[in-house]
Amino acid sequence: MPSAAKSRPTLPQPSPTPGKTGAAGSAAGISRPWQLAGVAALFLGLAAALLFSGAAAAREVSDPGALIRWGLPISKALHNVSLATVIGGLIFAVGILPRNANGSRSKDTSTPEHPAFSRALAVAAAAGAAWTLSAIAVLVLTYSDVAGQSLSGDAEFTRALVYFMTDIETGRAWLAVTIVAAVVTTALFGVRSLTGLAITLVLSLVGMVPIALIGHSSSSSDHEGAINSLALHLVGVSAWVGGIIMLAVLSGILTGTKAAGKADITEPTLRRFSSLAGFAFVLVFASGVINASIRITSWHDLFGSAYGQMVLAKAVATLMLGGIGLMHRQWVIPQLHRKGAALSARRVLWQLVIAELLIMGATSGIAVALGRSAPPQPTTFAPDASPAFILSGYELPPELTPERWLTEWRLDWLWIAVAVFGLVSYFLGVAKVLRRGDKWSWFRTVNWVIGLLVLTYITSGPPSVYGRVLFSAHMVDHMALTMVAPIFLVLGAPVTLALRALPARGDGSRGIREWLLLFVHSKLSQLVTHPLFAAANFAGSIVLFYYSDAFGYAMRDHVGHELMNLHFALTGYIFVLSMIGTDPLPRRAPYPMRLLLLLATMGFHAFFGVAIMGGTGLLAADYFGNLGRAWGPSALLDQQMGGAVAWGIGEVPTLLVAIGVAVMWSRADARESKRTDRAADRNNDADLTAYNDMFAKLAERDAKLADRNSKLEGR
Asked: Among 16-20, 486-490, 551-555, where is mean pLDDT lowest?
């Protein structure tokens, strides 16, 4: 054991029998009654919160009845728990547990699965079925609640329900969730490869997007901030709650037995999940505070309203859970292998997991009740909303001036979370590499920090704010996102750092390091990082985007806007990586080809900019032409200015990348020359001697041929 662990107090020895069934978390695991206690806490917390807030009380007008008033929140609670269980099971299968019982990474399907892996997927599959059924129930009950009528089997109710599912935003959202849940559940019953399960995990996370787009968040004053913070909150909660549920249901399997020849994987499982839970805690608490601050704008609303008091209860419960997680990490995990303390550590471990289950269950019930309660701030659009507010969700910013390129901000919490996660993870990686005694270039670290700052400025600063109302500002936003930030991020070499800092796993499971290596060598990576594909995607996607309906969709719709940011950031990053990156790639183009590709993209950007400058038709006319902007140039003139921006901004970063390629080419030639000189010194110019000998032999052969020819001519 490390010396730090020896200084920690030893846990008291347990007096009860370790395997006692009724024990509240014995050393052998958590019994079924205590696992179900978390479900009981969920419904008790839900009922108490509904009664406290009055959300379950009968409405004076269009009351759908007690069955709907209580059935809808119960269905949502079941939906949330089953979704979290699916995500938790997939996370454990994909990144925490070993797939094969023998600890190998064999892809042979005949290899016996690890019992914990099989149990995790079995529980996730059952939860997927519950997720699908509960989503259907929420869909039907939501319609009854909105329509203010009880359930019915007549034709009129059915027609109205179909209209709700196909033409109303809330109905379409829950229909999408139901479809995603059904697809994920089907995959869980049939997919066993880790790659297929990883894709299924991504799809299950996509299933949370429609949930974040409806409800209070969709019509808050800062609706994009509310949507992004809620989406981050859902991801963190699902990973955290689902992981605790998995620990509970796997508690009796993680402990191996020598007789069965199975290793004890309790400690690595808990350690890996503890790292994930730490990030999830920060994500859940921070996003919860942000989301609540958007809906609660005064201390009176926080302490004086039922909604605010339930938010406080959630915050306190989250802090308690964070404290328990800290106990896991600092006290329990280090003692799982200590002789004389391991048994008591296991007992305390499962007792803490039970406490987490109970607190999380009650907190989840409060969260569902919050969704049924009206927040203090109104969540409906004003009847006199401006055209800009209707189209973009925000009022027009003040007229753009030079100083406002620094002062007008609207925080995009999704990209701020990406930047903070990237910054913290990078610093942790650098610290680990330095502690090991290895070196890491400060130049790379500085570039990474600058890249994240530039990314934050682009997505949350004035380029984003004014990019919603000015095409020229939007083009600044786009070009900086795809051509400025990627240069600094690529020079930070994050993949190289991750591969150096993350330890390799030896139990057959796949951690972040293994997934990175798998992706780097995958067919997909070979395609998207191929120099020709990267250049074509970098240049061609601009035309496809701006001269199609995708541009208008990205301006009007929040999901479209975020997908646009993601696409152009990744496109620029991959292109710059293929040109000047040092991170590992399946294929690297020769330096002359890189320069040719850069010259081609420069010419293409110039052509695109000139085409926009000379265009007489307004792009996304139904958006930019109807904002009601009374300041600045006309929409068409501003668009033509945007073409000049595309031309000007597009050339400078590309030229800098070209200079970088030339410098790398020169250094590569210098290294090759030094290598050749060192080799010549080692073998006494054997290569040069062999080269000269070859020419000497050729000359001797030519002389013999000439002599023979002269003799033949003499005859």
From this structure: 16-20
> What distance in Å separates the CA atoms of residue 78 and residue 135, rounded to the nearest whole number?
9
> What residues pair up with 29 in beta bridges, in sequence order?
26
Q: Which residues lie across from 100 on neighbouring strands? A: 113
CA quadruple 301, 302, 306, 307: dihedral positive or negative? positive
Whether residue 240 contacts residue 284, with contact meaning beta carbons closer than 8 Å, is answered with: yes
Each as own residue / partner, the long-range contacts of residues 622-628 (CB below 8 Å, 24 or more positions apart, any chain) are 622/552, 623/391, 623/552, 623/555, 623/556, 624/469, 624/471, 624/555, 626/387, 626/391, 627/387, 627/388, 627/391, 627/392, 627/396, 627/469, 628/386, 628/387, 628/388, 628/396
Query: 108 with 524: CB under 8 angstroms?
Result: no
123 vs 146: CA distance, rounded Å: 33
3-class DSSP string for 55-110: CCCCCCCCCCCHHHHHHHHHHHHHHHHHHHHHHHHHHHHHHHCCCECCCCCCCCCC
Q: In the prediction, which pLDDT does 13 show?
A: 40
Distances in whole angstroms, Cα of residue 384 to Cα of each of 378, 387, 389: 15, 9, 10
Residue 694: count other Cβ atoms within 10 Å of its Cβ: 10
CA-CA-CA-CA torsion sign (616, 621, 624, 627) = positive
DSSP state of 446: H
> Hey, which bits of 458-590 come out as E strands?
none
Distance (Å, rounded) from C-alpha 159 to C-alpha 536?
48
Q: What is the rounded CA–CA span in Å between residue 248 and residue 25? A: 9
Question: In one letter, which amino acid is 113?
Answer: E
Residue 44 token pair: 């008790």
The confidence band for 347, taking pLDDT boundaries of 50, 70 and 90, is confident
How big is the chain by its Cα radius of gyration, in Å?
31
pLDDT in tens, 501-560: 999 888 888 999 999 999 999 999 999 999 899 999 988 888 899 998 999 999 988 899
Of 29, 9, 10, 12, the residue nearest 21 (C-alpha) = 29
Q: For residues 173 and 272, what is the distance between their CA atoms, to the nearest angstrom?
A: 34
Residue listed under structure tokens 């992004």: 228
Indicate the burial class of 370 (C-beta count within 10 angstroms; 0-12, 13-18, 19 or more).
Answer: buried
SS3 of 156, please? helix
Which tokens sit at 636?
């068409």
Buried b (16+ CB within 10 A) or exposed e, 657-685: bbebbeeeeeeeeeeeeeeeeeeeeeeee
Burial class (CB in 10 A: 0-12, 13-18, 19+), 168: middle
pLDDT of residue 287: 92
3-class SS of residue 172: helix
Domain ranges of the chain: 29-372, 404-501+525-621+635-675, 684-714
> Which position has the token pair 């420069």?
602
Helix axes 223-254, 66-91, angle to 10 degrees: 60
Tokens of residue 469, six digits: 């109302």
Q: What is the 3-state secondary structure (H, E, C) of 356-368?
A: HHHHHHHHHHHHH
**Region of poorest pLDDT, from 82-86, 126-130, 460-464, 710-714:** 710-714
Give strand ranges (E) for 394-507: none
Q: Would you state the structure tokens that stand for residue 362, as one six-digit string?
A: 């009650």
What is the DSSP code (8-state) at residue 305?
Answer: S
3-state class of 643 per DSSP? helix
Instruction: Please enumerate in sequence order all residues whose Cβ is within 8 A of that of 552, keeping only pairs 6 or more positions apart, or say none.
Output: 620, 622, 623
